[in-house]
């Protein structure tokens, strides 16, 4: 393998971001490899925007090092031609048209692309000639995405890309992200839609109060918490074959690290005793369970 | 830089308020001064030229530049531009180039008309130097003022001290000369530039003596740029 292939696209080491007395990001370290989709998730005020903006180069680190393509992200001339950034808020000039906005930002990225192609991707072709001020919130997000992927950059930052988008627009957006990834682009994503991260991220960094609480693949993260089986029983039911807790609404909760085996035991027990397991739900741990557990750990 | 300048020019001509502020108000005010000149015999032509220039540069360039920067910051357009490969100097140059070019053209046209309807300037090079120094000074002051301006609406307040100040100083220096309070008049922003315009237009002062008057104006450029580097913000305060 060449050194380019093994060098991480993003290398963050002991990053600290402080605003006066407030320590927004504390000793954050992570790497993003070429071609990965890395999701930076966190609770509100977790510091992910501060971390992301520092990695993007919009903000200076208080301490620690951030390298993007082996360079400081503050060196715009070196890094930005290879980077597309979709900001959390639009930031377009209201008096420019949609096409003019894409063309302007595109020219400033120093990459080449066709404005018509990008407007087609985000379904704004029919609005090419209207002013940005006349777009809806969702349309502005789509315009933002179009400028971020102008010229198919090697690295794309997507800061809450699907907020305010309808299902069809989301599908179009993810389709284009998939296309970029097929071409080898690296994606850094923040989102409040955990199912998007669970479905698409190769690795996830979970932030809370300025630090990483967990980092890894979805299965690595969810593996740390047991899977759950929920059901309710008639009042005359015999003793359960597995340890279970009774919830406040009367349902039973079984937590297990061997979902298939324990579910099998439970179903056999119910079959043998002719017990109906009402409202039976069983499934692996989801990302939102991991997310909730962070808050619980902090409160404990 | 030129892509940004091109987009700014498009926006200038689409925004009626900016267009009125930048084109019609200074032009109408200048026409009024010329009207006065025709009717007041013995009016100091150099002083009229100085006041006209400051009127256009202060109202057309300074206030528009502050308003533009505040507006572009407020709607996060500055942040958007900083997401690209363009460096900060080129972003600011691109944003301010159209309004600067329009102002220089306006000043050139107005002073040309003045020289045609009255008398031409005695020292054209000196006049050009004075205009350019004033433009640079007002751009520096605009950057500094934009740093303490939260929104385009706020610019109506924050620009007033310098706007009124330089207009008053240019009028004071232009019409009363610098024989009295010469040091004060020359170190105030716009004072030495106004005197330079008067000397350039009326003549009678050694070229080298007039050229020294560039120093206070350039000192104000330095002060303004230092202030701007400390207070200018690229994103809205949160």
TrEMBL record, chain A:
CDD domains per UniProt: ABC_DR_subfamily_A
Keyword ATP-binding applies: yes
A cellular component term, taken from the record's GO annotations: plasma membrane
Main location class: membrane
InterPro entries with a match to the protein in the record: AAA+_ATPase, ABC_transporter-like_ATP-bd, ABC_transporter-like_CS, ABC_transporter_ATP-binding, P-loop_NTPase
PANTHER family in alphabetical order: ABC TRANSPORTER ATP-BINDING PROTEIN (PTHR42711:SF17)
Protein name as it appears in the record: ABC transporter ATPase
Organism name: Streptomonospora alba
TrEMBL record, chain B:
GO molecular function terms listed in the Swiss-Prot or TrEMBL record: ABC-type transporter activity
Transmembrane segments: 17-36, 48-70, 91-118, 124-145, 157-175, 211-232
Organism: Streptomonospora alba
Claim: Membrane is one of the keywords in the record: yes
Record-annotated ABC-2 type transporter transmembrane domain positions: 49-226
Name of the molecule in the record: ABC transporter permease
Gene Ontology, cellular component aspect: membrane
Taxonomic classification: Bacteria, Bacillati, Actinomycetota, Actinomycetes, Streptosporangiales
Keywords: Membrane, Transmembrane, Transmembrane helix
Topological category with respect to the lipid bilayer: Multi-pass membrane protein
Cellular compartment(s): Membrane
Record Pfam families: ABC2_membrane_3 (PF12698)
InterPro entries reported in the protein's UniProt record: ABC-2_transporter, ABC2_TM
């Amino acid at each position: 393998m060449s050194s380019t292939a093994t060098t991480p696209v993003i290398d963050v080491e002991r990053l600290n971001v402080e605003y006066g007395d407030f320590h927004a990001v504390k000793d954050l370290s992570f790497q993003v490899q070429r071609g990965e989709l890395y999701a930076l998730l966190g609770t509100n005020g977790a510091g992910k925007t501060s971390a992301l903006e520092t990695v993007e180069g919009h903000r200076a680190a208080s301490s620690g090092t951030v390298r993007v393509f082996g360079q400081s992200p503050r060196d715009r001339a070196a890094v930005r031609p290879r980077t597309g950034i979709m900001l959390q808020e639009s930031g377009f000039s209201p008096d420019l048209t949609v096409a003019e906005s894409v063309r302007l930002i595109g020219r400033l990225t120093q990459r080449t692309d066709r404005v018509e192609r990008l407007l087609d991707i985000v379904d704004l072709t029919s609005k090419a000639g209207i002013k940005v001020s006349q777009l809806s919130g969702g349309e502005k997000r789509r315009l933002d995405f179009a400028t971020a992927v102008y010229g198919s950059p090697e690295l794309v930052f997507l800061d809450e890309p699907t907020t305010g988008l309808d299902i069809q627009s989301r599908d179009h957006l993810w389709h284009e992200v998939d296309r970029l990834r097929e071409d080898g682009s690296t994606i850094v994503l923040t989102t409040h839609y955990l199912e998007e991260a669970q479905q698409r991220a190769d690795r996830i960094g979970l932030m809370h109060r300025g630090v990483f609480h967990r980092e890894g693949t979805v299965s690595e993260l969810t593996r740390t918490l047991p899977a759950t089986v929920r059901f309710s029983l008639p009042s005359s039911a015999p003793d359960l074959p597995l340890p279970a807790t009774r919830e406040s609404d009367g349902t039973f909760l079984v937590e297990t690290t061997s979902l298939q085996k324990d579910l099998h035991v439970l179903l056999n027990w119910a079959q043998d005793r002719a017990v109906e397991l009402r409202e039976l739900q069983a499934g692996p741990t989801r990302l939102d369970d991991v997310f909730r557990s962070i808050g619980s750990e902090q409160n404990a | 830089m030129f892509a940004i300048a091109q987009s700014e020019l498009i926006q200038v001509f689409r925004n009626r308020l900016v267009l009125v502020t930048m084109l019609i108000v200074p032009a109408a005010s200048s026409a009024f001064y010329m009207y006065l000149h025709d009717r007041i015999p013995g009016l100091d032509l150099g002083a009229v030229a100085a006041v006209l220039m400051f009127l256009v540069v202060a109202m057309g360039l300074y206030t528009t530049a502050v308003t533009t920067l505040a507006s572009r910051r407020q709607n996060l357009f500055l942040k958007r531009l900083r997401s690209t490969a363009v460096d900060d100097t080129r972003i600011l140059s691109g944003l301010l180039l159209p309004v600067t070019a329009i102002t220089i053209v306006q000043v050139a046209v107005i002073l040309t008309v003045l020289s045609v309807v009255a008398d031409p300037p005695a020292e054209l090079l000196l006049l050009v130097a004075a205009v350019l120094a004033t433009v640079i000074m007002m751009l520096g002051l605009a950057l500094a003022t934009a740093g303490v301006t939260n929104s385009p609406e706020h610019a109506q307040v924050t620009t007033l001290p310098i706007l009124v100040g330089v207009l008053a100083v240019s009028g004071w220096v232009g019409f009363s000369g610098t024989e009295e309070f010469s040091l004060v008049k020359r170190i105030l922003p716009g004072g030495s530039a106004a005197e330079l315009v008067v000397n350039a237009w009326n003549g009678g002062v050694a070229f080298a003596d007039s050229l020294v008057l560039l120093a206070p104006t350039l000192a104000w450029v330095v002060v303004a740029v230092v202030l701007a580097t400390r207070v200018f913000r690229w994103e809205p305060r949160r």
